[in-house]
Design brief:
By secondary structure, the chain is an alpha+beta fold. The chain is 30% helix and 16% strand.
């Protein structure tokens, strides 16, 4: 832990004197505060700048400032609570404080403050659980940097800090390990597999061994009348032939080698909690059945809260107001340990044919057609995790997609680009948001409702499938698709072009 904190602070200092680092574009007064280890005013400043622009237009310097200030704050909290002494100050760090203080009033001298009676007092607090909140605070600070600012090139640093911190807490993820300077009685530790990466709260078995079979009710399973063609783990050559046809394909028996399906099972809530630092990691959650519904909203909550509130409850029928969905989030950049449980399908490294004219016109704005998306170096990964009843409304994506089902099952319906005129695409909505890749139609509304509002919709031809565990669905670029979870479901989408 000491080495991680020291090297992190050294990297933050080094960036301040590197003209090529984006943070040097911030005001000199802001950089001076970072040197004095007083990041709190910088967090407020950078936070205001993050909200002054659309997310994709925020200057990198402000995202970097928010990230570095968050890291500096987290390091200070860890030092305070683990009594890790600060490294000697460098010449450019002498504005405030001395070697025995961390410069923000929270530090512990140079280690001399660790007298016997003070250690006994702190030890008593730890036994009572009074100190456990600081661990949550550190995780929140660092995850907000990832979610709000995209980590701005510091994701590896954030993960190193969190991994080292997790090694410092006991198996239930609650209290710091005993300090090396004072012997304490040993506590029994539960074994964690070599890939488990430390403890996780709530992971001791019992009710957390598996998801409730009827979490948030059981969704109605449709009768499949127009099935998507399927193939058992096709060869690369066979898949390239499918690409040329421009049609969807259900791929079976292609994920058996994923650790997420076997020895590191995502079907185990306890395992997922361990992977998310006892459920402390923050995630963005969509609340409501679908993002096109009037009561839809978003919130950032801990993974454990998401699990307890939305995934582990088996009481009552499904209600749109009680649905929560971790949707289209790059969870694997935020939590790389989960990324190690899966693998990019080889099919994503094929070269699809050029986009056909009919596809270009399906759900893409004129700007998209005039300026095609650049070639991706690597596939884009997104996580989709939620209870039965969550919906992705009928929409198109700008990339080819392989949707892989790890836990549970989903109903998927697909329409070719040639059917676009019957699917009622939205237009530009309030605030100038282009929703032309999303249909106005609830694909599973009653026939009477559809005929009354969208008379052409039921004439549109489609294919459909029930996507089960261990299966993949290839969705060609531009194809409209509607997705509904039929049970607790964890999927991964791989976009490529």
């Amino acid at each position: 832990m000491q080495h991680v904190l020291d090297s992190t602070e050294a990297a933050l200092r080094s960036a301040l004197s590197d003209p090529s680092d984006p943070i040097t574009g911030c005001p000199a007064s802001a950089l001076a505060l970072l040197r004095t280890r007083n990041p709190d005013p910088l967090l407020a400043l950078a936070h205001s700048q993050l909200h002054a622009f659309p997310f994709d237009a925020v200057p990198v310097r402000w995202r970097r400032l928010y990230t570095d200030a968050s890291i500096a704050r987290a390091v200070a909290v860890i030092r305070e609570n683990l009594f890790i002494t600060l490294p000697p100050r460098h010449d450019d760090d002498e504005e405030e404080g001395d070697e025995g203080n961390n410069g923000n009033g929270n530090g512990v001298g140079n280690g001399e403050a660790g007298e016997e009676e003070e250690e006994e007092e702190e030890e008593g607090k730890e036994e009572k659980g009074e100190n456990r909140g600081w661990v949550d605070a550190v995780v929140k600070i660092l995850d907000m940097a990832s979610i709000m600012a995209g980590a701005a090139g510091r994701q590896g640093t954030i993960e190193r800090i969190l991994a080292a911190l997790q090694e410092h807490v006991d198996p239930d993820g609650e209290r710091p390990r005993p300090r090396a300077r004072k012997r304490r009685r040993r506590r029994r530790r539960r074994r964690v597999d070599e890939h488990g990466g430390g403890g996780g709260g709530g992971g001791g078995g019992g009710a957390w061994d598996s998801f409730p079979a009827a979490a948030k009710g059981v969704a109605e399973v449709p009768i499949v009348r127009h099935p998507v063609p399927s193939s058992v783990a096709p060869t690369m050559q066979a898949f390239e032939t499918q690409l040329a046809s421009g049609r969807p394909l259900l791929i079976t028996e292609a994920l058996a080698h994923w650790p997420a399906m076997q020895e590191r099972p995502w079907a185990s809530p306890a395992y997922l909690l361990r992977r998310t630092f006892g459920g402390r990691r923050l995630i963005p959650v969509e609340m409501g059945r679908s993002y096109t519904d009037a009561d839809w909203g978003q919130s950032i909550i801990t993974f454990k809260e998401f699990m307890e509130k939305y995934m582990m409850s088996a009481d009552g029928a499904m209600d749109a107001s009680t649905l929560g969905y971790l949707a289209q989030h790059d969870l694997f950049a935020q939590i790389p340990s989960l990324r190690n449980d899966i693998a990019v399908p080889d099919y994503c490294y094929t070269e699809p044919p050029p986009m056909k004219a009919a596809v270009k016109d399906a759900g893409f704005s004129n700007a998209d057609v005039a300026a095609p998306l650049p070639q991706l170096d690597e596939p884009l990964l997104n996580a989709w995790f939620g209870p039965a009843g969550t919906v992705s409304p009928l929409h198109t994506d700008p990339y080819h997609n392989i949707l892989c089902q790890v836990v549970g099952k989903k109903y998927v319906r697909l329409y070719s680009p040639e059917q676009t005129d019957k699917l009622y695409p939205k237009g530009v909505e309030g605030g100038g948001v282009d929703m032309s890749n999303t249909s106005e139609v609830d694909a599973e509304a009653s026939a009477d409702e559809l005929d009354a509002e969208f008379p052409l919709f039921r004439q549109a031809e489609y294919v459909e499938t029930i996507l089960g565990e261990g299966e993949c669905l290839y969705i060609p670029v531009g194809w409209w698709h509607y997705v509904r979870s039929l049970s607790v479901s964890f999927s991964v989408s791989f976009w490529w072009n």
